[in-house]
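Why predict the complex rather than its parts? Because the way molecules touch one another can change local conformation, and only a joint prediction can capture that. The input here totals 718 residues.
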Amino acid sequence: MPETLSPYPARVERLRNALPEKDALLILGEKNIRYLTGFAGSDGALMVGPDWLTLLVDGRYVTQARQEAVGAEVFEFRIRVEGIESVARRQKVGAVDFESQVLTVDEYLRLQEKLSGVTLRPLSGELQSLRAVKDEGEIGCIAEAARIASEALADVLAMVRPGVREKEIAVELEYRMQQTGAELAAFETIVASGPNAALPHATPGFRTIGPGDCVVIDYGAVSGGYHSDETCSYFVERADPRQREVYDRVKEAHDRAIRAIRAGVSCGEIDRIARTCLDEAGLGEYFSHGTGHGVGLDVHEGPRLARGREEILQAGMVVTVEPGVYLPGLWGVRIEDTVLVTDGGCRILTGSPKELTIL
Amino acid sequence: MPETLSPYPARVERLRNALPEKDALLILGEKNIRYLTGFAGSDGALMVGPDWLTLLVDGRYVTQARQEAVGAEVFEFRIRVEGIESVARRQKVGAVDFESQVLTVDEYLRLQEKLSGVTLRPLSGELQSLRAVKDEGEIGCIAEAARIASEALADVLAMVRPGVREKEIAVELEYRMQQTGAELAAFETIVASGPNAALPHATPGFRTIGPGDCVVIDYGAVSGGYHSDETCSYFVERADPRQREVYDRVKEAHDRAIRAIRAGVSCGEIDRIARTCLDEAGLGEYFSHGTGHGVGLDVHEGPRLARGREEILQAGMVVTVEPGVYLPGLWGVRIEDTVLVTDGGCRILTGSPKELTIL
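Output of the joint prediction:
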């Protein structure tokens, strides 16, 4: 396979270009390291110089690093800060710009001690958008993850009935996704029924589903390292007028936000549109989180679609749209799709129907 | 249920006692927060004062926090550092000791700015041992997780045969564990065969198992929030003399380490015993990680059983013993049990047989 088919060298170059005058970058986020090198291990550090690239790993990952990160030199450390020190000294680095949203204060203080004479500078925003615009390969992975997830959900939907426990559905759904090609579940699947549906981040428990419950299923798959993220809310056997009204309003907020998405619009504007729709119905106070987030190697990544966010959507970004209404102690509804931003609008990547459904 | 049955107030008191002269502690580690309050959400902050206890969460977690953290005041924030600032100002805190192994440099710099006039001091070692000694309830959870895991493994062992892919076994094992009561798999189950078994942290892939393979299965369950951790290595259809020799030696290292475990022995000594056993057979260079680690609310927590660690084992600690030999490009063997340290020795909590087994 010709070397040029690898996406990694161009990604590293883009990072070098964006930060031209720097001496060395210290990348510590696991997913950023994977994005830049292909190394999929869960611990390491990547140092990027003007004409060198060194992946630092401990003994557990040396073989894997050599296999996966073909474009980088692999350096083995026992203690990470000591490895960073060795590479910095060898390359005669004058300044290190580090990922301040990942480096802990503990490691920072030890690094300061080891690297006396070297300037340590926090990178804050510079890496936020590194992975935000996806290439064709990445979009294909997310779409594949979404396809696997939706098909698995369709298969387990018959289980959502009175007498079945939340956890049973979650376990079955994750199993089906992995049997049909998902590497993993994208996150701990949420199956929240009745009052649990009023908790935006409920973990599935042993509550037994009953008639009249709203059941919120927030789920996704991983394919090629990339995540999908989708939420469906169903009613069991019946839905009362208030439930229908809230569902319709959340769906309207979801639809209006999706219709507004296109390259050039700000993230905060999409959030405002969804929020206004719920505000108009007196439901704004029950919408306690942002409207969406980027999805990729992480299930939550940039950009954030939340109040006041000025970042502009670009073609190739993949984001969720997930308004919800949570009535504490009673029930809740959330409707979520993952969409690809295009120049003229967006393409929905997640495939489960979002019409009000009574199971 | 009488209030006194809750383990949380005593845990908070122990933390207050260990750090008597401090103004406020800022706890950020998710599992430490759960240990001290019962709150099982994945984002928040806990502030501990001499006579006050405040759990800070964002809007997604307010309802859950009120339900679970009964002994703490719940404070809702939109941006975590702003929440911390509000509570610190209200309590007129003069100094904040923060978890430096969790706080990122980014949040630290913002906190410094917000809390001018307040001293920020990194806690480094003080919290390391907070959760190391387990109480009866915790030990019961770990033992239950181990029981669920072993029974599930026994059920899927018939799948380990030529023609089956690693991932199929991992998916089936995680499914069985959750069907029989595990909240989750303790970590991404490792099923590594042939040359993949030479990667200590391999993720299960689409490699098809063949005759003569060694298959390393590293797996665990979660029960009541607590993890089990166990590794079995099997041979498929046959084992050659070198494989038998290495297996026996790894088993000997495992057994010697377990025989040496008791309250009063240092962690480094246990590592030395396992390592020496492999060194004697010329295999020391292929043992590329520590001998073990604590297990509890995290699958990896203190203490670490590794070279030179001076920490002393205490009754009630729960640790793994997991020597391994990895022959790059060829195969590997790891044998791991989770044990409870007692005054006179230890009790093995993980239940799968560790004798050389040809499937």
